[in-house]
Amino acid sequence: MGYDIGWIIPRLRNPGRLWNCASSITVAVVGLFSKIIIEFLNKTTVYNREALARAVHRPHGVPLLTVSNHHSCFDDPGLWGVLEARTLASGARMRWALAAHDICFTNALHACFFALGKCVPVVRGAGVYQPAMDFCVERLALGEWVHIFPEGRVNVEKDHIRFKWGVGRLVAESWARGSAPLVVPVWHEGFDRVLPNVEPYRLRLRKRLYLCVGEPIPLLPLLHRLKSANASEEETRRAITERIQDELYRLRECARTLLKRAGDPMATDTTPPAPPAARHAPAAPCANGIDHRHEKDKDV
């Protein structure tokens, strides 16, 4: 029998002053540690960094949902090390993240640490209607930031995995509650160089990392069409999820193009061809058709 996670989500809903204080410290320490790892001890290039900054500093009350590929256990929190230090130190502004209960919440110590770090235990295989998903819907309704890996697991082989429909539920129910979230895709390469998926599981240094941030996905036209067609909840979740999957795969092609320009061998990694919807669609630019790479990012 695994560790009982039943206490975690009720605690996250009603944290108390001491919990909030401990959580703020945990989020700040982990965030700043991640920044040191990816920006000082490794070399990171960020394309369209401004789109992520704008999303994180969006107007009050606007929910944010970020989605990305999942290649390493260091993807989160590592991804957010590119944010400003003052943002990383703000427990209230930082993301909530879904984390596998059987990996991150295996004992009391781990459960407490990850819960304080704003990670929500999700039970893989339990479907879209489970406490973790309910909690994330509530967070979005409050205008907060939720991050999800729609592949549902660390994609070690880097295959094209059909996205889990939970991401579609988060968007649909957030919209039903009054506000569709900003959905920002992020494609990254190289985090499995920093923390490989093979033993020994330890952080590596002096590796090349790339983040390609997309513009918010325009989902409102799709949501209105689904509503006009009286689509069922299942049809709605599937349609939203497929649209997000297509957009993230387009961003992947953009990222690989930029990596080729940078001369990085990751651009030629062997991966299966994209699904037809993503393969035949025009490649989405990283930022309005322009290669936005700051000079200061080249050798960070």
Task: Describe what you observe in this structure.
- By secondary structure, the chain is α/β, with parallel strands linked by helices.
- 43% of the residues lie in helices and 12% in strands.
- The protein contains 13 helices and seven strands.
- The protein has helices at 8-13, 16-39, 49-56, 75-78, 85-88, 101-104, 108-116, 131-141, 166-176, 191-194, 220-228, 233-262, 276-279; strands at 43-47, 64-68, 96-100, 119-122, 145-148, 182-189, 208-213.
- The protein has a seven-stranded mixed beta sheet, sandwiched between helices.
- The termini are far apart.
- The relative contact order is 0.17.
- Residues 276-285 and 287-300 have low confidence and may be disordered.
Short description:
The chain is of the alpha/beta class. Helix content is 43%, strand content 12%.
- Form type: globular
C-alpha Rg, in Å? Answer: 18 Å
Q: Total helix count?
A: 13
SS class: alpha/beta
- How big a fraction of the residues is strand? 5-15%
Question: Can you count the beta strands?
Answer: 7
Q: What are the secondary-structure elements, in order, as H or E? A: HHEHEHHEHHEHEHEHEHHH
Could you estimate the helical fraction of the residues in percent?
A: 40-55%
Major sheet size, sense and barrel closure: 7 strands, mixed
Averaged pLDDT? 90
Q: Going across the biggest sheet, name each strand in turn.
A: 1-7-6-2-5-3-4
Please name the defining characteristics of this protein:
43% helix, 13 helices, 300 residues, 12% strand, alpha/beta, disordered C terminus
